[in-house]
Write a structure and sequence with these properties.
The complex is a heterodimer of chains A (about 110) and B (about 120). Helix content of chain A is about 0%, strand content about 50%. Chain A has about 110 residues and is mainly beta. In chain A, strands 2, 5, 6, 10, 11 and 12 form a six-stranded mixed sheet that branches. A four-stranded antiparallel sheet of chain A has the order 3-9-8-7, with no helix packed on it. Chain A has a two-stranded antiparallel ribbon with strand order 1-4. Chain B starts with a strand and ends with a strand. Chain B is mostly beta strands and about 120 residues long. In chain B, a hairpin with a 6-residue loop joins strand 4 and strand 5. Helices cover about 0% and strands about 55% of the residues of chain B. Chain B contains no helices and eleven strands. In chain B, the strands form two sheets. In chain B, strands 2, 4, 5, 6, 9, 10 and 11 form a seven-stranded mixed sheet that branches. Classes of the chains: A mainly beta (about 110), B mainly beta (about 120). At the A-B interface, strand 5 and strand 6 of A face strand 5, strand 9 and strand 10 of B.
Chain lengths: ~110, ~120
């Protein structure tokens, strides 16, 4: 079946540090891959997505590249801010099926200290 | 309007109460979802409605009863819940259809439910 493995948290970084949150997946076919962010007390927001191999999703300074050869979709940001403190979920969804469920990783809690 | 709204924001209920959660979207989406999220865990899918018909039920206990009265509204009726049902209940919607570009789900802010 489908599964997503992401690095265990919590992760604590200083402001302006480089961020990497690792995500690898197991899936049949060619899934779409997503990063969602959840700020304290809120629902999930889509941060970025990629729908095919070698696609790079980017948003708000965050980037992730769909690597089929390593089945990975690592999240990176060059210089984090305190406002990036949140929980980040990597997720996949099978392509070409409109309403199939998202399979989430366990989430990584990120705290940025000034 | 790219927003999914949920009411109420917080709900406290006893084990014998009957209550309902409401979700609404005006993006013209035809797929709507209920998720349950326990503290420090990822969301778990409960139900999917596609074109107002229930398409996925993830073996959810019958004390949770979903309803989709029209394409913009999704309800979750609650009855005889247990304390372990306390969680954040998230609603989401997506455009629906079979193409990859319809895959993006938009989430609401959630209803935080406490069962006493």
């Amino acid at each position: 079946g489908n599964s997503v493995t992401q690095m265990e948290g919590p992760v604590t970084l200083s402001e302006e540090a480089f961020l990497t949150i690792n995500c690898t997946y197991t899936a049949t076919g060619y899934p779409s891959l997503f990063w969602y962010v959840q700020y304290p007390g809120e629902g999930l927001q889509l941060l970025l997505k990629a729908t095919k191999a070698d696609d790079k999703g980017s948003n708000k300074g965050f980037e992730a590249t769909y690597r089929k050869e390593t089945t990975s979709f690592h999240l990176e940001k060059g210089s984090v801010q305190v406002s990036d403190s949140a929980v980040y979920f990597c997720a996949l969804r099978r392509a070409n099926f409109g309403n199939e469920k998202l399979t989430f990783g366990t989430g990584t809690r990120l705290t940025i200290i000034p | 309007d790219t927003e999914v709204t949920q009411t109420p924001k917080h709900l406290v209920m006893g084990m014998t109460n009957k209550k309902s959660l409401k979700c609404e979207q005006h993006m013209g989406h035809r797929a709507m979802y209920w998720y349950k999220q326990k503290a420090k865990k990822p969301p778990e899918l409960m139900f999917v409605y596609s074109y107002e018909k229930l398409s996925i039920n993830e073996s959810v206990p019958s004390r949770f009863s979903p309803e989709c009265p029209n394409s913009s509204l999704l309800n979750l009726h609650l009855h005889a819940l247990q304390p372990e049902d306390s969680a954040l209940y998230l609603c989401a919607s997506s455009q629906g259809g079979l193409a990859v570009r319809y895959n993006e789900q938009f989430f609401g802010p959630g209803t935080r439910l406490t069962v006493l």
